[in-house]
Amino acid sequence: MIRSPRSHWAAAAATVAVALTATACGSDGDAGAADDESGGSVETLSVMSRWTAGTPEYDVLQSVIEAYTEETGTAVELIDGGEDIDVTFETAVAAGQSPDVVVVNLFDKSLGWLDAGVTVPVDDYLSEWGLEDKISEQAVQEWRVGQSVDGALQGFPYSGFSWPVWYNTELLAAAGVDEVPTTVDDLLATTEALSAAGIPPMIVGGSDWSGQKLFFQIIQTYMDTEEAQTLFSDGGYCDSDAALQGIELFVQLRDAGLFVDNVAGLTADDMNNTYFSGGAAMMPAGSWAFAPALAADEETGGTVVDSTELAGFPVPAGEGTFDEPTVYQGFTGVGFMLTPDGVAEDRIGASRSFIETFMQDDVVSQFVAEANFLTPIAGDYADDATNPLLEEALQLDGVAPAVLPDVWLGVNSDPVTQVSTLAYGDADAQAVCSGLDSATS
Amino acid sequence: MKFARTPGTAVAHVLAWLYAAVLVVPLLYLVLSSLKGNLAIFTSPYALPSAPQWDNYAEAWTTARLGPALGTSVYVTAASVAVTLLLAIPAAYALARSDSRFSTVAYATFAAGFLIPPFAALIPTVFLGIELHLYQRAEFLIAFLPATALPLSVILLTAFMRTIPKEMAEAAVMDGAGHWTVLTRLYVPLSMPGIITVVILQALGFWNEFFYSLVIVGTAPTERTVQVALPIALISENTDYGVLAAGTLISLVPVYLVYVMLQRRMQEALTAGAVKG
Amino acid sequence: MAAPDTAATDDRTGTGPGVSTDRTAATAAAPSPPVRTQQLRRMNATGGGRSLPLLTVPALVLYLFWTVVPIVFVFVFAFFDYRGILDFVASDSLVDADRFSGLDNFRLVLTDAVFLQALRNTAIQVGVAVPLMLPLAFMLGYYLDRRPPGWRVLSVFFFTPGLISISIKGTIFYAMLSPNGGLNGVLDAVGLGNGGAVDLTTAWYADPRTALGVIIFADLWQGIGWTGVLFAARLSAVPVELYEAAAVDGASEWRRMWGVAFGVVKGYFGTMVMLQFLWTLFNSAPIVYILTGGGPGTATTTLSFLVYQKAFQQQQIGYSQVVGIVLFLFGVAGLVAIRRAFRQAY
To answer: Taking CB atoms and an 8 Å limit, are C203 and A264 in contact across chains?
Structure first.
């Protein structure tokens, strides 16, 4: 070939192409492994966490990690998963970079990880590491597959939650209501009184998970535990009398004006912030809202926390399967899952000591005090609770536990939320039940 | 021609400014929110902040670790734009000057790039990224984004370069110039408005890219772009919207700077350049 | 949406005005020392020699790699039973023969009520957004081009929303359209809200009657201004004499806009229609995800969002890829139809 000026160009172009491919193929994508110059023992534990930066639990996590590293010499690579942790975790596994420990709640996709083999059952470790007596039996059962005694244990429970209804007694009193309603009839009367006094009754995030939970809490009023569990996972709402009754109860309450205007468009943040500023008399909120409630009172100089009484959601007197107002309570909050990587021979020691660190008394106290945890760990931590709402939640009685749908809905959680949004609008019972069936198929 | 003063034009004025208001008001809301506490945003969304909360900005900066995230975004955007230009300019030059069957097919191939639905292709692209060991590396974007930018960039630049009369190239060739010289001394300077346009449009697109950045590059503070850092770090069960707004505004600053610096040239480009049809 | 000026080019021959005619004549006429003759002979009539197309190769390679390979796999995965990302981990190779499911996914999708609803939603979305946005943007561009008072400020206002990313746009809209947000606030203030003569306030993106409209509006909100500014720039090249001639003939401003200006930029307009069509068809997933999550019910589930939802939320990758194919085919069909409609511009 005769050399001509153009070949310089072709060569340059080719070089660029090669350089690009070289960058692509040459770089080592193994972001997690420590460079072990020593050539052997593990010096970094890879932990993926659901806790978001800027939250109290994240801060406590950081301090625990620091202490852990100082004591054991093992560095911890912390990966923020945030609310997208399921996608983050799954792509990491697909890329061959599974973390060792996952700090995550039992929700949506994480419920399928044991089955997919990307996390391991921890039954053996529970006993081997002497944690059987440390963690409450109820919590352990909730973390078993199917929540049954035979199910494999998906992880170590660590934080529970309480999800009561918050009643602002001051606003109730202003409407002439002296007692927190416990039956549906009471609730309807309360609603009427509040509306007459121009006070928005109940606020909830109709467009998101908070609305979904309340919705499910109400529609299971006529079902027993097993029925509810089966229905949530398999569907068949339109064919179930109990389900239809429950849905009709929801519709009745909605049409009676229980919820604030346009509730279908609200989010949990709207709910919290409106309630904190005295903009509604009632809201169903979980224990993660205890800290922001205090903070809001500080910001506004208000007394919402003092006026708030925590109780359950009213049930129909003499009907349905519940004798007392219902509340979600449980331990499927955040827990520790282990991956095959994490229990590999060279890493399991580090994983073990990491988890044991969290089980220590002072660490649990810290989480209770600073992050308002309801903990399944054995020990007396009630005194560490500095938040009056947390204290109240820990002593809550006169309530019956409702079935939290998360574990049973699995990955249908999102489409189901779209149906509950519809329910908070003006859909009738039939539209709602068929929407649920469609979303669960 | 002067703007006639008729009822029709009055309506036009009103509508245009009304539309402008509809555009600006939400942005104003964003700015106001960035200076308020969370509760204030909910209770009095349009009121001026009683005491401007400047520490929202500081908090957004530290909590979301915006320093590294901005650095990564700048790095990714700049490098991707560079790669795009490096590939698109020669390609456009070739397509502008050549009438061969090959170049016709090549041109059509680039034009077909608009037909790829991005979200459908996300799953296979994830695995492609993993296979190339680019998973969880910002470099993935530098390898990937230019490819998505090439259809528009090549088409646009080709249009600009086609307006350069071929006689000029011939003359240069007769004086002994090779492709490199013709390209850099003739075509690039003359199509500079077009190049600037491509730079603005692509820089914007790269900076704002979210989904691939989240799923493939990931959330590690050292690798993530600013678009990923903001929601990952700031959205939780108890989002502080003031901080989120502040962080958002911080992420808009570089984009706005690029726009301000280059927009006049882009105006020129769209006016003068490959104006035909 | 961006503005390439493909109106300038003809895909078939790659020529446009300004192409030189007879190069061989030119080269033959020039006095040429032997070396130069050799060079020139190598550069034949196609203007650059066989080496020229090679310059497109690096771009083509990178581009084809990242577009063709994934799209091929989209077609492939549609025939397999893949659920979630983790399904790919179990097998060694990317394509697991055991999971071949033939036309099962297609059967499932094409008869699924959700898919059909998504088809309807997408048809409405595209059918409303594109015909609304382009003419409005054109008129806005014409208006700006006439340099009305304050046009510089207006241009900045119109262009700025195009600079913000979709996630920010979604967050802003969320705040504006929230039940206690900006829009309802304005309605209350003018007496069209709570306690007013007519209560127009609603949950907007959570109300099945208005949710899809919200999605469409979100696109229009940003797109009209952005596209309008681009039209304005394009229109500034229209010769003033054309307007003056029309004015002399007694044409009103409106007539001048549609009769003169539009005629000149028709090709550009056609290109923008094409691009906007494709963009609306393919890219509604992020805005739907942030604003409505596809709901309430399935009121705002578009095909684009369905692709995302099935793959990333519901672990039905096979389903998702089938919808991807449907989208692709619609894109091609729409493209062909639009080009045909604007044929004369080319």
So the answer is: yes
Helices of type H across chain C: 23-29, 34-42, 57-77, 87-90, 104-111, 113-145, 151-159, 166-177, 182-189, 211-235, 240-248, 253-255, 262-264, 266-282, 285-291, 303-308, 317-341
On whether both B50 and B80 belong to a single domain, the answer is no
Distance (Å) from the C-alpha of residue B236 to the closest C-alpha of chain A? Answer: 6
How sure is the predictor about C34, in pLDDT bands with cuts at 50, 70 and 90?
Answer: low
CA-based nearest residue to A242, from A225, A257, A258, A256: A225
A 245-274 residues with CB below 8 A of B?
268-270, 272-274
The answer to whether the Cβ–Cβ distance between C86 and A417 falls below 8 Å is no
Both B15 and B138 in one domain: the answer is no
Check whether A364 has a pLDDT greater than 80: yes
Asked whether the beta carbons of residue A207 and residue C205 sit closer than 8 angstroms, the reply is yes
Residues on chain A touching C49 (C-beta within 8 angstroms): 6
Q: Among positive and negative, which fits the CA dihedral A182, A185, A189, A191?
A: positive
- B227 and B155 both lie in a single domain: yes
Give the CA angle between residues B18, B24, B28 to the nearest 5°: 135
User: DSSP for C25-55?
Assistant: HHHHHS---HHHHHHHHHS-TTTS-TTGGGG
Are A159 and A374 in contact by the 8 Å Cβ rule? The answer is yes
Residues B165 and B107 in one domain: yes
Question: B69 and B49 in one domain?
Answer: no
- Chain B / chain C CB contacts < 8 angstroms: 337
Residues in chain C closer than 8 A to A414 (CB atoms):
293-294, 309, 313-314
Nearest CB among A8, A83, A288 relative to B235 is that of A83
Which among A168, A159, A147 has a CA at the least distance from the CA of A375? Answer: A159
What's residue C35's pLDDT?
53
Q: What is the pLDDT confidence band of residue A32, given thresholds at 50, 70 and 90? A: very low
| Angle, alpha carbons B1-B14-C142 (nearest 5°) | 40
> Are B96 and B195 members of one domain?
yes
Q: Residue B7: what pLDDT?
A: 77
Is B270 in Cβ contact with C234 (below 8 Å)? yes
Q: What is the DSSP string of A214-263?
A: HHHHHHGGG--HHHHHHHHHH--TTT-HHHHHHHHHHHHHHHTT-BPTTG
pTM: 0.84
CB C232 within 8 A of CB C144: yes
- In a mutational test of the C interface, the residue from A102, A422, A432 whose CB has the highest number of chain C CBs within 10 Å is A422
With tokens 């550069």, the residue in question is C43
Single out the residue of B119, A354, B215, A26 nearest to residue C71, CA to CA: B119
The topology under which CATH files domain C107-345 is MetI-like fold (1.10.3720)
Check whether residue B45 and residue B72 sit in a common domain.
Answer: no
Indicate the SS3 state at residue A324.
Answer: coil
> d(Cα B153, Cα B175) in Å, to the nearest integer?
30
Domain with B28 in it: 7-54
Smallest Cβ–Cβ distance between B99 and the set C15, C278, C304 belongs to C15
Scanning every residue of chain B, which has its alpha carbon at the shortest distance from the alpha carbon of C275?
B114
Q: Do B86 and A82 touch (CB under 8 A)?
A: no
Residue B248 within any structural domain of the chain: no
Based on the fold, state whether residues B50 and B88 are members of the same structural domain.
no
Expressed in angstroms, the distance from the first to the final Cα of chain B is: 23
pLDDT of residue B163: 80
Supply the CATH number for residue B224's domain.
1.10.3720.10
Q: How many domains does chain B have?
A: 2
- Judge: B65–A23 Cβ closer than 8 Å, yes or no: no
